[in-house]
From TrEMBL:
Lineage: Bacteria, Bacillati, Actinomycetota, Actinomycetes, Kitasatosporales
UniProt cross-references to PANTHER family, sorted A to Z: AMINOPEPTIDASE N, PROTEASE M1 ZINC METALLOPROTEASE
Obligatory cofactor(s): Zn(2+)
Family under the similarity heading: Belongs to the peptidase M1 family.
Residues annotated as domain Aminopeptidase N-like N-terminal: 49-218
Record's protein name: Aminopeptidase N
Catalytic reaction(s) noted: Release of an N-terminal amino acid, Xaa-|-Yaa- from a peptide, amide or arylamide. Xaa is preferably Ala, but may be most amino acids including Pro (slow action). When a terminal hydrophobic residue is followed by a prolyl residue, the two may be released as an intact Xaa-Pro dipeptide
Matches recorded under InterPro entries: Aminopeptidase_N-like_N (IPR045357), Aminopeptidase_N-like_N_sf (IPR042097), Peptidase_M1 (IPR001930), Peptidase_M1_aminopeptidases (IPR050344), Peptidase_M1_dom (IPR014782), Peptidase_M4/M1_CTD_sf (IPR027268)
Length: 507
């Protein structure tokens, strides 16, 4: 009845526009961002722009207490949405109002706001939590590593879920303010610039800011007792390095490597263009693992990286990632070659720069080292699969591919690409086919079959194909290892012997 009275013509249309879409039009955000290797990673329905993490950590008990404030924009009419998180949550608010929440799946925090969230509107999510991260297992695994005097979060492809709720995939990069209160005498090391420190009642608060888009796995936290060095590079970048006080015999070699970060960046700028961030440094916590990780502006290094002496090559590798991986981030974990191929090739260029073997000599060495029937050639750098994502071949054949490209298109186009790509795509995401298209544009050559051969075929490129790319088997006199090879190999011995995760992933 009433309806009929209200309906007539034009008036009804006007009213319809004013009435918000019914609840039925609001749908849940996807529990996945759609990654081809890690379906649980990331979520749909919103886009994060900023994380504000206010934390307190007690090394004695491993208790981490936090309030995460997340600024996002909806990308659909949302009835509910997920964050990726593994710790115990006590309260969630959306736009100031209490929201319902529950844990689903392995590490999903499902949040249902009091009312639907319309598309394209800003949303503020506050999550309060407290837990002992080292005891929280997902697939029998924790990314949170205890040290004798603290803890560290630095893992790939994921570590965020053990210390803050997020949209945990490189596709959704954001800026960060990370403020951590730790017992006096301990420090909290994170990304970017140290904005302030303050002490009160036996606790010291360290407030860090990372002001350029940053992927979740590149966001790091270390709590412990560190010797901190600060400096400014010739071009004015603030440098902060941190060395655990208990590095023992490795302390000297760690410093002799990482204190050369400014020099390494200066070299890398000549090949990749301007450094993409406004801070620099590295840190070495007292962990037992062997790997390094390109955490944004402040790479993580395991003490073992320096057990055989200084290794500037690994520093060059992690700093090269600041362009290839951190500023230009992969769009899907299948694109790992865009990170590791280029960071490894940077080590080859550094070797050339140091007079310890040219990139061609390193390429010849890799090419000759593995006969055609070696399993090395079965790994496709352009799509290695989740279980082989960090296989040595992704690094070595990945770099070899770049030397082959250099031979195929000549130095001029090649170096124009190495510099142009991170400039053009700075602070974004990219996929391998986009890189191929860019290389074709710059070189003016059709490179489809070239990249298919070098990145996507599970076999050794041989014969005329290899010859055309400047590589050919020297059966009678295989290439000898260039001087730099040992240090380069030490970088990825570590990749090869990292603890394998029970689901086949390497962490
Ligand atoms: N991306 C790291 C590097 O190239 C290596 C790496 C692979 C890694 N998997 C990891 C580091 C897991 C830490 C955890 O230097
Ligand atoms: Zn790497």
């Amino acid at each position: 009845m009433h309806r009929r009275l209200l309906v007539p013509g034009v008036l009804a249309t006007g009213l319809m526009l004013a009435i918000p879409a019914s609840a039925a039009d609001y749908t849940p955000g996807a529990p996945s961002i759609g990654d081809s290797y890690y379906p649980a990673a990331g979520n749909g329905g919103y886009d994060v722009s900023h994380y504000d993490l206010r934390l307190k950590y007690q090394p004695k008990t491993d208790l981490l207490e936090g309030t995460a404030t997340i600024l996002a924009t909806t990308t659909q009419d949302l009835s509910r949405f997920n964050l990726d998180f593994a710790l115990k949550v006590s309260e969630v608010r959306v736009n100031g109002k209490k929201a319902k929440f529950k844990k689903t799946g392995e590490q999903e925090l499902q949040i249902t706001p009091a009312a639907g969230l319309p598309k394209d509107t800003p949303v503020t999510v506050v999550v309060r939590y407290a837990d002992k991260p080292s005891t929280v297992k997902v697939n029998d695994w924790t990314s949170w590593v205890r040290t004798p005097d603290g803890a560290v979060a630095a893992q790939e492809p994921e570590s965020a879920a053990w210390w803050y709720p997020s949209n945990d995939h490189p596709l959704d990069k954001a800026t960060y303010d990370i403020s951590v209160s730790v017992p006096e005498g301990s420090q909290a090391i994170s990304n970017g610039t140290l904005q302030s420190t303050s002490s009160k009642l036996g606790w010291t608060r360290y407030s860090w800011r990372s002001s350029k888009p940053q992927a979740t796995y590149l966001t790091t936290l270390a709590v412990g007792k560190f010797d901190v060095t600060t400096d400014t590079t010739a071009s004015g970048l603030p440098v902060v390095n941190a060395y655990s006080k208990d590095l023992g015999e490795n302390g000297g070699a760690a410093r002799a490597s990482i204190e050369r970060s400014g020099e390494a960046v200066e070299f890398l700028e000549t090949v990749f263009g301007p450094y993409p961030f406004n801070a620099l440094g590295g840190y070495v916590p007292n962990v037992t693992s062997g790997f390094a990780l390109e955490t944004q502006t402040r790479p993580f290094y395991s003490p073992k990286q320096f057990a055989k002496g200084a290794n500037v090559s690994v520093v060059v590798h992690e700093l090269a990632h600041q362009w290839y991986g951190d500023s230009v981030s992969l769009g899907d974990w299948a694109d790992i070659w865009l990170n590791e191929g280029f960071a490894s090739y940077a080590q080859w260029l550094w070797s050339e720069h140091e007079g310890e073997g040219t990139a061609q000599e390193l390429a010849d060495y890799i090419y000759d080292s593995y006969p055609a029937d070696d399993p090395f050639w079965t790994v496709k750098p352009g799509n290695p699969g989740a279980d082989k994502q960090f296989d040595g071949a992704v690094y070595d054949r990945g770099a070899l591919t770049l030397q082959a490209l250099r031979n195929e298109i000549g130095d001029k186009a090649f170096f124009e690409i190495l510099k142009g790509w991170p400039t053009e795509r700075a602070h974004g995401n990219a996929r391998i086919p986009e890189f191929v298209a860019y290389a074709e544009k710059v070189s003016g050559k059709d490179l489809g079959s070239f990249f298919d051969t070098w990145l996507f075929q599970p076999q050794k490129p041989a014969g005329a194909t290899a010859k055309a790319a400047g590589l050919a088997a020297r059966a009678e006199a295989p290439a000898k290892a260039p001087k730099s090879w040992k240090k380069i190999a030490d970088t990825h011995d570590i990749h090869d012997h990292g603890d394998a995760h029970t689901d086949g992933r390497r962490h």
